[in-house]
Amino acid sequence: MSDESRANFGSKIGAILAAAGSAVGLGNIWRFPYQTGNDGGAAFILVYIGCILFFGIPVMIAEFTIGRHSRSNTARAYQILAPGTQWKWVGRWGVLTGFLILSYYAVVAGWTLEYFLQAAGNSFIGKTPEQFTESFNTFTASPWRSVLWLVLFMFATHFIIVKGVQQGIERSAKILMPVLFILLIIMAFCSVLLPGSGPGLEFLLMPDFNKVNSGVLLSAMGQTFYSLSLGMGCLCTYASYFQSDTNLTKTAINVATIDSMVAILAGLIIFPAAFSVGIQPDAGPSLVFITLPNVLTRAFAGLPWLTYILSTAFYLLLALAALTSTISMHEVVTVYLHEEFKMSRRKAAWLVTSICGFIGIICALSMGIGKEYTLFGMTLFDIFDFVTAKLMLPIGGFFISIFTGWYLDKKILHDELNSGGHLPVFLYKAIVFILRVVAPIGIGFVFINELGVL
Ligand code: TRP
């Protein structure tokens, strides 16, 4: 497929923002705080930062290289770079992973709409902590309410996907990202300045290494791939729309920095405030939906208008951040169907929307009326999260590193990494070494340790 016939991001900053828009989402603001809360705070964050440096950034560079060089959907990319081999399965594996993540991710994305409306309707003020918990449980247990929001969210995603890459994805990311960032900084300030926020800051900043076990390693690694949208060809697909002189290494570092800053800001919003009002940090997936409104109403009890503005803006922007992420997953599957099965973009998008919507409905119901149906103590929703984030993405990342480090022609890698600016030789060598040795061994080690695969 030639350059001209495919869409391109119109500007370099547009490309960075679109990739950052994919990366920044519920993973940072919903998943990161509750993983941090469950896995011991600062020590988890340090391991997570290590994973970003040693797995995240190099694998992102690898995905960018594969995508931009092949200018194709993620499955075809491997057929172009490694014709006649089985590497195409890495791409197909990615498409499947993206499809599965989108199905349950859209459920949580739907919750943000419900909470946005609740915040905008001023229904947080005056609620007791028990009432917040109760209203979350009633909401997720109600069969039609979460399904309705999920369906709406899928339609919103669908609509933007059909409008196409540059107009839809790039434009929405350009406006949303900076606004989200500013709001998060304001909220983090408010939270840190609350009386009694000290223990929360300590929880985030003073590591206790006794808490690091193999489970923590697996969580941190899964969170890295999840949060950076890696391991399934999502950023590979976006890179296929990059201009040929976009600097891949710089873009990867920028995206990883923005993404980590948003996650840390989310932590800085939730934990100091939670400790300040005496709420436990390990509430799990409901943290952002129960703890946060609770914290906001109690922390600013004397200033209800501030609670109103902050909570409404927060859930609106969370919904929008989730939207730029669902768009990126939807795009991977849609462009795959469109290019591989010669379907129109519109038809491909409909297919993805309807099947993901259907699986999403089952996941949403599994939190409520289907709660008794569990496997290994997990509901269907938990299983989707575990299997995709902790197994499928790292497996994808493992093969992407090996492909780029060992199989891919080094001239291609070298040229791609050097276009848009000269890359210092030691950095190039370090990237190749990490992709060849460090990332595959590291990912393999975490797996063997946690899952007892050997
Ligand atoms: N990274 C996004 C978030 O943090 C979610 C996401 C978008 C994703 N695309 C992905 C996760 C691809 C894994 C793979 O919310």
Describe what you observe in this structure.
By secondary structure, the protein is mainly alpha-helical. The protein has a single domain, classed as Amino acid/polyamine transporter I (Up-down Bundle). The chain is 77% helix and 0% strand. It has 18 helices and no strands. The longest helix is centred in the C-terminal third of the chain and has 37 residues, at 304-340. The protein starts with 11 loop residues before the first helix and ends with a helix. Bound molecules: tryptophan.
Short synopsis of the structure:
The protein is mainly alpha-helical and 454 residues long.
Task: Give the secondary structure arrangement, pairings included.
Elements: H1 12-23, H2 26-38, H3 42-70, H4 74-81, H5 88-120, H6 129-141, H7 143-163, H8 165-192, H9 198-205, H10 214-227, H11 234-239, H12 248-276, H13 287-299, H14 304-340, H15 345-367, H16 380-407, H17 410-418, H18 425-451
Bound molecules: tryptophan (TRP).
Radius of gyration: 21 Å
The domain tally reads: 1
Largest sheet: none
Measured by DSSP, the beta-strand proportion falls in: under 5%
Number of helices: 18
What ligands does this structure carry?
Answer: tryptophan
- CATH architecture annotation: Up-down Bundle
User: Which shape, going by the Cα principal axes?
Assistant: globular
The CATH top-level class label: Mainly Alpha
> What is the averaged pLDDT score?
89
Taking pLDDT < 50 over at least 5 consecutive residues as the criterion, the unreliable ranges are none
Q: What gap, in angstroms, lies between the N and C termini?
A: 43 Å
Approximately how much helix is present in the residues? over 70%
